[in-house]
Specification:
It is a single chain. By secondary structure, the protein is α/β, with parallel strands linked by helices. It has two domains: about 250 residues, Rossmann fold, CATH 3.40.50; about 190 residues, Glycogen Phosphorylase B (Rossmann fold, 3-Layer(aba) Sandwich), CATH 3.40.50. It has 18 helices and 14 strands. Strand 12, helix 14 and strand 13 form a beta-alpha-beta unit. The longest helix has 18 residues.
């Protein structure tokens, strides 16, 4: 990656910092239609001269960095200057923000005065290094940089908070201090963006937009691979391609349910199912729990011939993406039994590649999987093992499920479609005024709403199982 002389700068056309790129926009037409691309170009022309800034806490590892590494060069191709900066953080700061993340997702505990002070002092110091950034619209990703608007916002700017995590409203009701903390820092924002309707918190004081995440179908992680490229990766790690491969991909994180995948795999093997498991992923730089989770998984699987644990964190990002792509394409079935999940781009990636997915019915996974149609929703490790055996023994059914999943992703979760939603949102915020201005109670959804009953009943059963 290119090192920038500007603090925290990841991507900037003005500074000549372009570590990521995307193909010409015309190459996306086969995925989303010529009409969709023309609509995007019309929207971009309407916003001619717009400058955007994306603020996050890491440029590597996790879904936010994955999306920004494609969406920012894509927007610049459309003629909209979008810049990306990363908020630097100490180990102490990221331990606090990870705890905030966990509390928002329902973990027990409380936000202490000491944690608030660490957050406050670090945000204040970080704002000084970002004060020279110029933008008409600023999008802040997740809780880590949330407080920056209080120090950096100018009167003419629009600031949007993009929350990617699986917020638990019931937990917030039990922790009013936590939501007071979020509200305190969000008061300088013009709107909030959530991935799904069921993340909307009733006490949120901002207009809300619902825009699901997306994948780039032409990125290194999702492009078509030659069989020789897939074989090269399998050979590198000593994986026998003649034994059916099942996998779980993603960050090494306690919420990802990796232990459940391991138990389910063992149960399937004990019933005579001939397969091998690959657990491959990264540790994000803003996640202090990553290395601990990886060590636990390595210890848990030590000496097991048919389980391969691959830490890809040290690889250059392009090599990392290509190897994940190869593992996903080599897999017959992909697991994602998360305990909480903001969206689950690994599910989207697997479905896009035509792979049947076995996952839990939590968070953003519910937007993607339709049980027994585009994947299997499961409640226990026994269910996971049973569905794995069924899919491996019935390849025709698995193939049809994979095809349905691919079609669903093509219709709903590709980058050009969702970038169009972002531009429509920005157009509304910049160009609607007077009596038509969005009220703080407004909700604008760019995706069909999903009923909550299944999610909530499942999560109650899951908690009992845990």
């Amino acid at each position: 990656m290119i090192t920038s002389p500007v603090e925290g700068l990841v991507y900037s056309e003005d500074e000549g910092i372009r570590p990521f790129n995307v193909p010409p926009i015309s190459e996306y037409i086969p995925f989303v239609s010529e009409y969709r691309i023309e609509e995007l170009q019309d929207l971009a022309r309407r916003l001619t001269g717009l400058r955007m800034l994306e603020l996050s806490s890491t440029s590597y590892g996790g879904g936010v960095a994955e999306m920004l590494s494609s969406s920012i060069p894509f927007l610049n191709q459309l003629g909209i200057k979008d810049e990306w900066r990363v908020m630097r953080g100490t180990k102490e700061f990221f331990e606090v923000t990870k705890e905030i993340h966990n509390l928002l997702q329902g973990k027990g505990g409380r936000l202490t005065p000491e944690m608030k002070e660490i957050y406050f002092s670090h945000v204040r110091d970080s704002a000084e290094s970002l004060a020279d950034a110029r933008a008409d619209v600023v999008i802040v990703h997740d809780p880590q940089p949330l407080g920056l608007a209080s120090y950096l916002r100018s009167q003419k700017q629009k600031w949007l908070w993009r929350c990617h995590i699986d917020i638990d409203e019931d937990s917030l009701k039990e922790k009013p201090d936590l939501w007071d903390f979020i509200n305190f820092w969000s008061r300088n924002y013009d709107a909030a963006i959530f991935s799904a309707a069921y993340y909307i918190v009733a006490c949120c004081p901002l207009p809300i937009f619902i825009i699901p995440p997306f994948i780039d179908p032409l990125s290194e992680k999702n492009r078509e691979l030659l069989s020789s490229e897939i074989d090269e990766v399998l050979d590198k790690y000593g994986i026998d391609k003649n034994i059916p491969i099942v996998s779980q991909i993603g960050r090494f994180d306690p919420w990802k349910g990796i232990g459940r995948t391991i138990h389910a795999f063992r149960k399937a093997r004990s019933k005579g199912c001939d397969c091998q498991l690959i657990i491959a992923g990264n540790s994000a730089s803003d996640d202090p729990e990553g290395q601990k989770t990886l060590s636990l998984v390595q210890e848990m699987t030590k000496g097991e011939e048919y389980i391969h644990v691959l830490d890809l964190s040290s690889l250059p990002w392009k090599v990392n993406a290509r190897e994940i792509n190869a593992i996903q394409r080599a897999s017959r079935v992909i697991f994602q039994p998360s305990l909480k999940e903001g969206f689950g781009l690994t599910v989207t990636e697997a479905m896009f590649k035509g792979k049947p997915v076995i996952a839990s019915s939590v968070g953003g996974i519910l937007l993607q999987l339709r049980d027994e149609e585009t994947g299997f929703c499961v409640e226990s490790t026994s269910d996971m093992a049973e569905k794995l055996i069924y899919l491996l023994e019935n390849p025709g059914f698995a193939s049809e499920m994979g095809k349905r999943g691919m079609v669903y992703v093509l219709e709903h979760f590709l980058m050009p479609t969702r970038i169009g939603d972002y531009l429509k949102m920005i157009d509304m915020l910049l160009n609607i005024s007077g009596d038509n201005k969005l009220h703080s109670s407004s909700i604008v959804s760019f995706h069909p709403w999903y009923k909550l009953s299944k999610r909530r009943s499942y999560e109650k059963r899951l908690q009992r199982l845990l």
